[in-house]
Amino acid sequence: MVTAGTQPVLDAAFDVVEPDRTRRSVPVTHLPFLIGRGAEVGNDLQLSDMRISRNCAALVYTDGVFYLEDRGPRHGIFVNGEKVAKAQPLRSGDIITFGLADSYELIFHCGQPKESLTQLLSQLNQAGALEGGARDLRHLSLLLEATTLIESHLPLEEVLGAMVDRAIRLTDADRALLLEADPQGELRPWLARQRDGSSIPAASLTPSKTVIAHMREQHRSVVEQDVSQAAADLRDARSIVGQQLRSVIAIPLFSHRQLRASEATFMGGTIELLGALYLDSRRPTAFSRLDRQILDTIALEASNVLDNARLAEKEMQRRRLEQELATARSIQQALLPKSFPSLPHLQVTGLNRSCLAVGGDYYDLMELGGNRTAFLIADVCGKGLGAALVTAMLQGTFSAMALGHEPAKVCAHVNGFICSHSEMERYATLFFGVIDTAGNLEFINAGHLPPLLVRGARVESVFAAKSIPVGLFAQAEFETDKFTLQPGDTLVLFTDGISEAMNPRQELFGRERLKKVVESCAACSLEEMQARILAGADEFARGAAQADDITLLLLRYCGAANPRPAATN
To answer: Which of 11, 234, 461, 486 shows its CA 20 to 30 Å from the CA of 542?
Structure first.
């Protein structure tokens, strides 16, 4: 337990979701609790993202309520998707973000008591003095039974069914229906119970549409203990008259993380309606004040159950997606070369680093026979699973087509395949080349960044793009260029994750900086050159999150001293 001055504060902690989606828990040990980048300004929760301000936010505690204070972050701070203006009350389960893609999320937790339950329990000593005190005590026991169900490990439907049974016993209703909001906000029947505690098909119980409509329009409960005394529009409603109803109740179930928001805020659309508890009877009923409080509290507990179930389902979906992404990443990495063959005329190295779990960059090396070697680097537009699927298709197509075909025919086939599957909505830039042992290079640059040629101490660009990316136009033609490499020449192929690496000031690494790094290590081994390029881009970025995948493919022509014999059929 932490304290603020002499005032005790309930247990509190943050679940920190890292940019790579791993999690850790950070307890709140004192107040104010400072949040931001780095430790030099005294932050208690330090977030390693250069885009997050050093003085970002603070957790404070005032009059029994936790508040999140905005301390002036550059991109703002958000609670459940809503930007914090100055200070925002926090409830357990609130999600805090920083207006940044692929950055941290904080989930706030605190051991707050159920206020309405506490208030009702405080009336135990007074209940005997009330009219019908024994009855009130029996009804209060229903509340205690209902709240005990929250801590049970029973199936969700069984817990909610038992709570609905207690609502029927409290109100003396004939039947009750629990409705759940679908993703579009429409209320759909979920479970229905009768006065004797038996279940009935939810679809067989038709609630009064007029009552439900009133509840939604007014954003509060509708409780009519005697419909004959109600307003004319409700009293004369077809569903009321047709079913001969004398009492109806409809209580909205709101997200428990937002129950403290005002009605005006709800009307602005920020409070989620989880569902509704509906009860009706052909007999009029009579509630005491305590009965109504107990009914409202049972509805609150039902909201908690529904809300927690939804959060648990979302967490399960998140974990399932993470597992699927991990599998997809493993498959994608398996498609990339683990190592390159030892060739007498060619040295090769390469790497791929995705900014997300899976990416849209791809590179490969293929021996064609006849002392010819093909190589490829490609960048599919977009990121994530869609781009990864296209890179897998490229790998299969190039592997199958490269044998026995000229570069232009290979690119035309790939282009036609992508265009014929318009649902992909993807295109790819690529550089595809074939080099023989004599240093003769045939290549196609289809909209890709021109590779760098390292010749001696000079670094230059001589491979301009003369064709459009594959996948844009079905009738596109691809032009093959030729170039002769000299022994010692090095080709540096890269994707825009290198040239467009961005630092915290939103500046790009750029082609000129890349050329200077390559010039500084022109005489180095390919492995050293690759490491220096990557280190230069990382040092420039200074920890800023990147928006694109990074891929490098380096080839050095060694000359034709020991050409391999041509394959024979």
So the answer is: 461
